Every structure is written in C-alpha cells, then in structure tokens.
Amino acid sequence: MMPTSPLSRRDLAEVVEHAKEAFGSLRDARIFVTGGTGFFGHWLLETLLHANETMGLRVEATVLTRNADAFRSKSPHLANSRCISLLEGDIRSFQFPDKAHTHILHAATDSSTSRPEAPAYELAESIIGGTRHILQFALHTGARRLLYTSSGAVYGRSTTLLHTPETFHGASDPLLLQSSYDEGKRMAEHLCVAYAHDKPLAPVVARCFAFVGPHLPLDQHFAIGNFIKAAIQKQPIKINGDGSPRRSWLYMSDLAAWLWTMLVFGEKNRAYNVGSDKGYTIREAASITASTLRPDASGSSGLPIQIAGIPNAQAPLNSYVPSIDRAREELGLEVTVPLREALLRTAEWHGYQPSAGS
Q: pTM of the predicted model, to two decimals?
C-alpha cells in the first residue's frame, strides 16, 4: 500500500483560519473520531494536527480503525503523531476505551460500492448499528458534543428543487433496494436525537452533498473524480447519461472548516446542509474540468466529451444541490474555493500541472 501524501500547507492554513474560533474552543479536548481512514477523515485529522501545531491546542484524538497496521502504512504522518491514538475494532462492536472523551466526530460510513456483492440490508444495518454503538459510547464516556456526518441522500437522490433546504421532507422510496444507504442515514439521524433526549449530549447532523479535493478517489463512483482522472490521463470525458442532472461540489478545505464549526457551534438536534450551492449540469461540469485541466491554446476545452444519453426536454428537473442558507445565517459559513480552483488544487495534489495546449 502506497502512503498518501499530506495536504498542502495552503489548504491546512485556510481551514485553520476559517475555523479558528471552533479550534480555539477545542483546547485540551479529547475527540473520538470514526471514519478517520477515509476521504473526510484524512482532512479532519490533518487539519486537527495543523491546528494543534499552530495554535498550541493540546487536543488529543482517538481514531477508530478496522485495521491499525493498514492505517499506519497508508498514513504514517497521521498514525505516528503523538496526539493520535489508534483503536482497532468494528464500529458496531468496538470496546469502549477507558479514557473520557469530550467530543465525538462520527464520520464513518459504508457505501453501496464498498462491497457491491453484499446484501442490501447489510449496508443499512452497518450504518444504523454503527451509529447506535457510537451513541452508547458517547453517553458512556460523557461526551458533550457529537457531530454525525449524514448525507443529502436523506432527501432522495434528486429533487425538482434548484436548492434543497433542510425543511424539505421528501425522501427516497424505502421499498427499493438501492435506498438502503439513504434509509440507513435517515434512521441514524433519528437515533442521534432519540439517544440524546433528556441527556447533556448535543448531537448535530451534517447532511453532506458532493465534494472534490485531495484524497477523493478518482476511480470510483464519483463523477467529478472520474472527470479529473480522464483529464489527467488525456482521455475523453465520458458521461453515461444525458448530462442534464444538476450537481454541485464543495472543496474539501471548506468541508473541513464547516464540520469543525458545526461540531462546536451547531445547534443541538439540528441538521445543516453541507455543500456548494453553485449548481452545474453534469455536462457543464465535464466541460469545466476539460477546459481547466486540459486547456487548448485559446483556453477552451482541449478534450472531447462523450455523452451517451439523449436529452429529454420533458423530463423533470433532476437536482442534487443544497440550500446552505441555514449554515450561512446561523454559523457564518461560506463557500470560499470556486470549482475551477478546486479542480486545479485536486489535480496538483495528484502531481499534475495543466498548461495551455497540453
């Protein structure tokens, strides 16, 4: 297993600057982190270490991992830190550590693509069972705050709204097998509220949409990751559908700053959308990726874009773009990195520098 590269000092500094007040409130805290080996987890741990280093916070973190040796091999710059302790175990059954923890960051999740051959019910059971065990630990250890990273999928995989607010009560069809992830996330949100009822624990829900940045896998089901990979390899960008669905992507430095802020300042039993409210069609996103990472001499796209589907003008709007008014108004959060800059930074982390006519 090849080690992963640390994040750039620029990205780390931006997160600490944008979440400085939240980090300051975490001084001397002990945080329990799930999902520390994943896309979100790497950003959360690396930015926490940078805040510790630059602000003298003395924060300690316990990171739950299924395989501690694999984590050490993949991310030695994290695993070898003196302020990080690894706890090996399954999220549904790990033994509670003896040390008390003040905060819980529950960022672990399975996905339908991690084990596609597994029965659909195993995905929902993993999400719900893991969250139940984390909540039991939160009450056992006396944690004051818990942030649960849920998903915009709780609204359904698409809506006919240009921007979906937290007050939208639509949902996926619970009778479809492909709704296992969505329904698991919905039930896990409810468990957070139910377990904290009449307790001092303050759970906050982050409904996360789509993201781009270092550590994003370029060979999985993430459309923007596939586009970046094609551009780096100078291959045509392929779209399986008609390119009309609307999506948005938040850069990971913004995500990390938002999650740290929500952990500390989010209102108890409240959900906040996390994502960019700047929506693009899939076709537009492919074109932006091509012109940003493979520009021709005129600055336009230097890559062909192949679209398999035929647009249907009568089809309803298919949008997966959040309203972020609540995060803006209540927590002062903003999107600070536009999509083109996010694409450039992601490609740069993978060792690619675009040039005109490349």
A: 0.96
